[in-house]
Amino acid sequence: MTRKLFLATVLMLGITLVSCNTKPNDTSKSNDSTNTTVEQNNDSKSSSEAKDNKTNEDAKANKVKLSIYNIDENSLEPNESGTIELDAKLSIEDKLKALSKAVSEKKFDKLPIEIKSIDTVNGKKVATINLTDSSSSKWVPKFQGSTGGSVTSNTLIENFLQSNNKSKGEWIDGVKFLYNNQPIEYEHASDLSTVQYRN
């Protein structure tokens, strides 16, 4: 009887040991499947990131940068102070409108600058730009003084012609300015009274 009890106990211990040994193997199998899932997730993330990068590159390829220029008061030379990015598919007129808004906000205290027309003159595209003013005549002080008038003239001319910008895409060849729909006749802003062409 004691012998039977002893054999039964040994048998039970053997079964317990065998079942303990098989459980870790099952766990490693589930770990393998978890690792596979993680790897698949990482692969799909990499693929998704690559697609996002391609989309960003395509978006950049379809953009043009227009420069915003400051004019040095001593040399009267233009220096790029910023850029705006626009859809390359926009018409020249829409690009000019976006540029006029940026130049107005950043250089001329939000004074209105409107694009009147783009005409072909002697085979060249010339934009007519109107500097509008209410009865308060806020543009007038910007045309006065030898330095002030020159800085205003050069700021407007350089920003609209984009002469130093190589990445602007198709653009105008010349620009003509009006003040309240009339020719600009201020001594120190005389460059604004004639059509200015890109170099």
Automatic annotation (TrEMBL):
Bias type Basic and acidic residues, positions: 46-58
Keywords: Signal
Signal peptide stretch: 1-20
Keyword Signal included in the entry's annotation: yes
Record keyword Calcium present: no
Low complexity bias spans: 25-37
Region annotated Disordered, chain positions: 22-58
UniProt name for this protein: Lipoprotein
